[in-house]
Specification:
With 333 residues, this protein is mainly α. It has 15 helices and no strands. It has helices at 2-9, 15-35, 42-53, 55-58, 62-73, 78-96, 109-127, 132-148, 155-169, 177-191, 199-206, 215-231, 233-236, 240-250, 256-332. The chain is globular.
């Protein structure tokens, strides 16, 4: 039971021995559960706890965990599968976001990069298979990786990941379309404004899904448009009229959820266009004010120079008169 596992965690043993023993116990427990076709959630809950206690030490067991997860998925129903994929995300989060101040248990940059490559390959191995269930598994794992690994936000990793994902959007042999759309949404959320270089391509790649017969694809592709508009406004607003051609059809969609997302997206685009126009007007007014300020400055300088010149001229005339008076006085003497 989960309580017995937690009790084991409280036993005083060297960290390395305890971790090794615990992994062995959990692995055997899962194996027996599979044999009896009674797989429980309990042992999986412990994996994030173990990895969080010492990420560096747990790196030695990541391969074993991935094998266990992959083998278990083959024998479970969809609800338990979704739970296990979430555990996969929690393991990633516990290793990358450990709050401990003990440097000897934390992952350095090389370990982080090594782990990322291992986890990414684990996801892609399923995605590359020509079977819907495996592709679905791979996409759910990938979504968890995107949402929990901070390296995804770095430019080089982001570019590589987007190029990998985008290749499956219009691949006819790829069947997990809903899941790949979710991956894209998670990637945009993770990258935020760093996704701008890929915004236009992403938009045009998902436009066909807006008219798909599957209402969930229509809804998720609308979510992509909305998310792109939020984080990549400058890239999306110029394409607004083109997007609206699709949205005008979807705002009357028979499915309420699709209609609601469509109306929210239309409203958001409209508000952002007005905001963008106001920004342009403000910039124009500011520019005019600056030009006027410069012109006034030039005029003031001209008046000062003119006034200064007039004073100099007046002093010159006054001095000339004084000289004449002086000469006249001298000659009279």
């Amino acid at each position: 039971t989960l309580d017995s596992f937690k009790e084991f965690l409280s036993i005083t043993l060297p960290q390395k021995e305890k971790t090794e023993e615990l992994f062995n116990v959990i692995s055997n427990y899962i194996f027996i559960s599979k044999e009896n076709k009674k797989i429980s959630k309990d042992p999986f809950i412990l994996f994030p706890i173990i990895f969080s206690s010492n990420p560096k030490l747990s790196m030695n067991y990541i391969d074993n965990i991935l094998v266990i997860i992959n083998q278990t998925i083959e024998d479970v129903n969809r609800p338990l599968f979704s739970f296990i994929s979430q555990i996969f995300g929690q393991i990633i989060n516990s290793m990358y976001h450990n709050s401990s101040t003990e440097n000897n248990i934390l992952l350095g940059k090389p370990d982080q990069e090594f782990l990322y490559r291992k986890l990414l390959n684990f996801c892609l191995n399923d995605i590359k298979l020509n079977k819907k269930n495996e592709q679905t598994c791979g996409c759910l794992y990938l979504t968890e990786l995107i949402e929990n690994c901070p390296l995804v936000k770095e430019n080089d990793y982001l570019k590589e990941l987007w190029e990998t994902i985008s290749g499956y959007i219009d691949d006819k042999l790829f069947f997990a379309k809903l899941e790949i759309l979710n991956c894209i949404i998670s990637l945009i959320f993770a990258a935020e404004t760093k996704f701008k270089p890929f915004a236009n391509v992403a938009l045009f790649k998902i436009l066909d899904y807006l008219t798909d017969n599957d209402w969930m694809k229509r809804k998720l592709s609308l979510n992509v448009v909305y998310t792109l508009s939020f984080y990549c406004r400058e890239e999306i607003i110029p394409l607004k009229e083109y997007i609206i051609e699709f949205l005008n059809v979807l705002k009357n969609d028979k499915i309420t959820e699709v209609k609601e997302v469509c109306l929210q997206t239309l409203k958001f685009l409209q508000e952002n266009e007005e905001e963008s126009e106001n920004s342009v007007k403000s910039q124009s007014i500011a520019k005019s004010a600056e030009l006027s300020k410069r012109e006034n400055s030039r005029s003031m300088k001209f008046l000062k120079v003119k006034k200064s010149t007039a004073k100099k001229k007046q002093r010159s005339i006054s001095m000339s008169n004084s000289v004449e008076n002086y000469n006249h006085t001298v000659s009279g003497l």
